[in-house]
Amino acid sequence: MKWWQQAAATGTLEVRHAPVRPGVTLLVLPDGPEMSRRGARPWHLNVLRMRPVLRAVSCVVPLEQALLGHVHYRSRGWNAGAVVDDVLRALNDLDRPTGPIRTVLVSHGMGARAALQAAVHPQVGGVVGLVPWLPDHEPVVQLAGRGVFLAQSATSATGVARAREYTLRARTAGARADVQLVRGGDAWMLRHSAAWHRAAAAGVRRVLAADGQGART
């Protein structure tokens, strides 16, 4: 059994593509509700929605260099931050066999909040957050030295304001942070999905370029 098959069987990491010598890891994190103890399943819509996102960002890095995977939560909801433990568990599963590889967390909604908090893990080099859930007073100190790229629907005035405020605080903390507005997109990424996929790829490209990692132009 390969190491990533063992990780999928015992943890929250599902590896979709694993080259012999990966140079960059791209992990996608789905959205979820604020509270739900129901078990997360791979056929749930929030998970399926991230599959084309993973395909889009996989075009940024040559496949012989990129390890691609999903983070699967044990429960569907944020549940007072329990989902962050799932992300850290996946990163630990990744760290044991591969060693330190710069990892970009590509995330949606609640998953973006979890990714930004999980950036405290030394594997994480950057976070791409699509329609991020950003309550007031979210921490940013863990983002020092990381790349952060947020994409928000231009139709959500509150979402845009929160993303811009968070980006400014992240820069003050030492992050390389940017925000992009997606015209016509909605919070579920159902309308103009191709625009969200392009934003995700642009975010990964920008994070890796700022980090000095190779990316296709």
Notes on the structure:
The chain has 217 residues and is α/β, with parallel strands linked by helices. The chain is 37% helix and 21% strand. The protein contains seven helices and seven strands. It has helices at residues 3-10, 45-48, 50-58, 82-98, 110-118, 157-172, 193-210; strands at 13-17, 24-29, 66-71, 102-108, 124-130, 147-153, 176-182. A seven-stranded mixed beta sheet has the order 1-3-2-4-5-6-7, with helices on both faces. Helix 5 links the parallel strand 4 (102-108) and strand 5. Helix 3 packs across helix 7. Residues 1-10 have low confidence and may be disordered.
Short note summarizing the structure:
With 217 residues, the chain is of the alpha/beta class. 37% of the residues lie in helices and 21% in strands. The protein has helices at residues 3-10, 45-48, 50-58, 82-98, 110-118, 157-172, 193-210, and strands at 13-17, 24-29, 66-71, 102-108, 124-130, 147-153, 176-182.
Biggest beta sheet attributes: 7 strands, mixed
Radius of gyration: 16 Å
Q: What is the spatial order of strands in the main beta sheet? A: 1-3-2-4-5-6-7
E-strand count:
7
Task: Indicate the low-confidence ranges by residue numbers.
Answer: 1-10
Please report the distance between the alpha carbons of the first and last residues. Answer: 36 Å
Structural class: alpha/beta
The portion of residues assigned to helices is 25-40%
Mean pLDDT: 88
The helix tally amounts to 7
Strand content: 15-25%
Categorize the overall geometry: globular
Order of helices and strands: HEEHHEHEHEEHEH
